[in-house]
Specification:
Length: 144
């Protein structure tokens, strides 16, 4: 059996591995940075929200998810934190450049043979970037 200290080290390592995998995925989908036109090294990202892609009959939540992003209604976006391991989902990320912030939405697939796709991206104005940061207090930014 693992001791508590060993279990904590394993959890920390797993989280680091997952963060590196997300950083690699975002770098593959968004390259170069549309704000500074260079690679994403030195940039940071934050997971804002996730939403399970529902069956065709139940797409109200998905519509609200995208409306929140397109309308810059960050307070309405924040509660979207659903994820299922056996379903497709969409994930909204903020990406911070030394210049500004952008929002990117990717779709990940349950089916292993389907690649993740960039569905939406938008470079935010300085004002909208400040509003996003205010809505997501103490954000856990991750480095690329």
């Amino acid at each position: 059996m693992f001791s508590d200290a060993e279990a904590n080290v394993n959890r920390t390592k797993s989280a680091g591995d997952a963060n590196r995998a997300v950083a690699r995925l975002l770098a593959e989908l968004i390259n170069p940075c549309p704000m500074c036109e260079s690679g994403l090294s030195g940039h940071h990202y934050m997971l804002l929200a996730t939403c399970v892609v529902p069956s065709k009959q139940q797409n109200d939540a998905l519509l609200r998810f995208f409306d929140s992003i397109k309308d810059h209604n960050w307070a309405k976006l924040r509660p979207f934190q659903s994820w299922l391991g056996d379903a497709d989902d969409v994930e909204a990320y903020a990406i911070r450049c030394s210049e500004r912030l952008m929002v990117a939405v990717i779709k990940t697939h349950f089916e292993l043979l389907q690649s993740p796709r960039l569905l939406y991206s938008e470079v935010l104005s300085d004002e909208e970037g400040m509003k996003l940061i205010a809505a997501f207090t103490n954000p856990p930014w991750q480095p690329f």
